[in-house]
Amino acid sequence: MWSLLNSKTFKALSTTPRLWRRTVTTQSLIYRKFGQPSNELQIIEEDVPNPIGKQVLIKILRAPVNRMDLDIIQGSVFIVPYLGHNFFEISLLGTHPFKPKILPAIGGGEFVGEVVKVGELVVDLNEGDLVIPLRMHLGSWTKYKLAEKEEVYKIPEYSDLKEAATIGANTCAAYRLLKGFVNLRPGDSIIQNGANGFVGQTIHKLCKLWGIKSLGVIRDRPDAGVLKLAMERLGATVVLTDKEIDTTDVYKANCLQKPKLALNCTGGEMAESIARHLDKCGIMVTYAGVSGKPFKISALSSLILNEQRFTGFWITKWVEENLGSPHHVRMMNELIRLLQANKLKTPPLEIIPFDDFKEAFATCDSTSKRFMLDMTADEDVKWIGEGLCPLVPLGPCSNFGGKKEVKKSGKK
After folding, report:
1. Which of 167, 215, 239, 401 measures 20 to 30 Å from 198, CA to CA?
2. Which segments of 315-374 are extended strands (E)?
3. Could you tell me which residue ranges the Enoyl reductase (ER) domain spans (predicted)?
C-alpha cells in the first residue's frame, strides 16, 4: 500500500525531513484551564521524539469531538487528561469533589491514524498501518502523537476513516451496554431513552443486526415524526415520545415483549418512564445523565416485587479494567468486521479542517451538532473516498477502492 513513508515521492512532502530527525514537530489543541472549549482551546507547536522500545509514532488523520471530550475540558468529568507525549496517566476519580489540576492537556479521546515510525522492540506493527486507540483520552487533537504499542489497535488498511475514528468510545459503549448486563436473544426487547443520540442510534443498529427489538424514547418536539422515521430506518422497532410512552399499547398489540433491559442516558422523568416498562427481574443501566436531574424508583414495586436491578456503566472505566482482555479484543474484532461489511455507519457529522477548530467548537457549545477534525486538510496528500484508500502522492491513485482523483490542498 502507499503510505507516508514508503512512497517514492516521500521527499516532496513538507513533513518529510522532520521524520528523520530526533523529533517531529506537531500542532496540538490544548487547554490550560477548565472552561468552555471555544474559549480555552488553543493551538501550540511541540516536539514529539522518535519512538523507542515499544512506542509507535502516529500521524493522526481524523479525530472526532465527543460530548465526553467537552465535559472533560469544562471540568465536569473527573479524569486526569493526557499530559503530553512523554507522560500518560488516566485516573478514574469517581465522584471525588475535586478536579484534576495537571494542566495544560491535549484534548480529544478518539482518532484514526497511520503509523509512521516504530520503536526497535515493536514487531507486530509496521509503517503504514492504520490504528485506532484501545485506551481512551490519550489526547487525540494533535497531528502527530507518540503511543505505546499496547495502547493502539491495528485495523484493516481499507477502513473508512470516519467510521474507524468513532469506534473507540460511543460504539464500544453501545456494544457493552447490550452485551454486558443481560443475555439478550433474538426476539427479546430493550427500551432506551435518548434514542436519537450517538450511542442510542448505534444501539438501534446493533439490535437490528442481532435480532433484538428496540423501543426508543425521544423528547416530544415539532419534528418528532421525522425523527421517528429516521430512527426506524436505523433499526428501531418502535419510537415514541416522552408524552406517548406512558400510554403506549405496543405490548398489548404483541409488537414487543416487556423489555429485559432499559438503558438510561437522561435521568429525570424520562428515566422513570422507561423504568416503569421493565420486565420482572429486568435491569436498568444508567450510562449518562444529560438532564442533570435525579430519578426515583419504587422500592416496593421495582426492587421488592419485581426484583429489578439498577446499575451504572462507564465505558472509560470498563476499558481501563479490561484493556487487552479476551472480552475487549473480541469486541474490537466484531466491531471492525461490521465496519468492513458496511453494516455499522456512524451518525452524520461534519468534517472540519484542524485549523478551523474555533468556529467548530463555538458551534458545538451552542448546539448538538457533531463534527470531526481533519488533520490532513492542509497537506499535499489526501485520503481518497473518505478513507477507502491509503495516503497517496499527488497524481493518479492506484485502485484501492476510492476515487481516482486526488484533491489538492492548493499548495504549490
Report:
1. 401
2. 350-353, 371-374
3. 35-373
Grid coordinates belonging to 110: 478518539
The overall average pLDDT reported for the chain is 79
Residues 6+ apart with CB under 8 A from 271: 193, 264, 284, 286, 295
Instruction: Convert the pLDDT of each residue in 76-108 to its tens digit.
Output: 765 555 444 433 333 333 333 334 457 888 999
Ranges of each domain in the chain: 10-166+346-374, 170-316
Q: What is the pLDDT of residue 246?
A: 83
According to DSSP, the β-strands at 130-133 and 152-155 are antiparallel
pTM over 0.85: no
User: Got the DSSP string for 385-409?
Assistant: TTTTB----SSPPPSSSS-SS----
Whether domain 170-316 has CATH 3.40.50.720: the reply is yes
Confidence band, pLDDT 50/70/90 cuts, at residue 18: very low
Buried b (16+ CB within 10 A) or exposed e, 339-372: bbeeebbbbebeebebeebeebbeebeeeeebbb
On whether the CB atoms of residues 107 and 31 are closer than 8 A, the answer is yes
182 neighbors 261 (Cβ within 8 angstroms): yes
Q: What would the CATH number be for the domain defined by 10-166+346-374?
A: 3.90.180.10
pLDDT at 400: 27
Burial of 57 (0-12, 13-18, 19+ CB in 10 A): buried
Say which residue the cell 484501492 belongs to.
400
8 A C-beta contact, residue 351 and residue 369: no
**Which 8-state DSSP code applies to residue 11?**
G
Task: Calculate helix-pair angle for 315-322, 172-179, nearest 10 degrees.
Answer: 80
CB 161 within 8 A of CB 386: yes
Q: Quick one: DSSP state of residue 50?
A: P
Strand 55-64 and strand 283-286: the pairing is unpaired
